[in-house]
Amino acid sequence: MGKERFQKLSMQHSPFFVCFFLFFIFLIAPAGDAQGFSDRVAAFVDDEAITDSELQAQYQETLKITPDITRDEVLNTIINRILILREARKYRIEKPSPDEVIKEYIDLKERAFIRVPETEIEKYYEENSDKFRGKEYDDVRDEIEQYLIEKELNVRLKETLRELRKTAYIKILGKK
User: Fold this and answer.
1) Alpha-carbon torsion 27, 30, 35, 38, what sign?
2) How many of the other CB atoms lie within 10 Å of CB of 18?
3) For a Cys-Cys bond, which of 30, 93, 123, 130 suits 88, CB 3.0-4.6 Å?
4) Cα 59 from Cα 41, distance rounded (Å)
5) Where do the H-state alpha helices sit in 29-174?
6) pLDDT tens for residues 100-131?
7) What CATH architecture is 41-172?
8) Where are the domains of the chain?
9) Is the pTM higher than 0.90?
């Protein structure tokens, strides 16, 4: 008889017990866990997720340096970093920070193969002589060469990233 009474009582009050149990769980659950569930994914690069909180943090940092940058530009920069870091891992480049890994990869795989002919440096000097008023060619030659190297490096990096993006699965989720 006691067993039947217990079953009857528990069936009548089960919604109360469930609500109390759930309330208790939410009450004692650490705030960090609850917050982890609410962080949405902004994008995927293959199997790697970029969360909204990561994107927002990077966006806020970047705004300090470049006030007119958009959230989409920051997201694309994060995606590019992920792709270059993955490519650098293929060459077993190891450095203390991701920025140093990226720099080493760029220096080894891109910059090392750029050569600017002397004629191109001279041509740039002549075509932009108004920028160099009062300065001799020998005084600005290295500066011009460095500028032309960086210009070519940017072209090569854009092409490299275009190729890396072709082979990666990139999914950008709902925009805010």
Assistant:
1) negative
2) 10
3) 93
4) 15
5) 31-38, 52-65, 71-90, 98-109, 118-127, 137-167
6) 999 999 999 999 999 999 999 999 999 998 99
7) Orthogonal Bundle (1.10)
8) 41-172
9) no
Token digits of residue 127: 């075509």
Q: Are 81 and 88 in contact (CB under 8 A)?
A: no
Point out which residues pair with 41 in neighbouring strands: 51
Q: Report the distance separating Cα 50 and Cα 54, nearest Å.
A: 7
DSSP designation for 96: S
Cβ pair 55, 74 in contact under 8 A: yes
d(CA 98, CA 13): 57
Q: Which residues contact 79 (CB under 8 A, 6 or more apart)?
A: 43, 45, 50, 165, 170
Q: Following DSSP, what letter does each residue of 42-64 receive, concatenated?
A: EEEETTEEEEHHHHHHHHHHHHH
Q: How far apart are CA 173 and CA 160, in angstroms?
A: 24
Q: What is the DSSP letter of 68?
A: T
Q: What is the pLDDT of residues 31-48, one digit of tens each?
A: 444 444 558 999 999 999
**Gap between the Cα atoms of 115 and 152, Å rounded:** 9
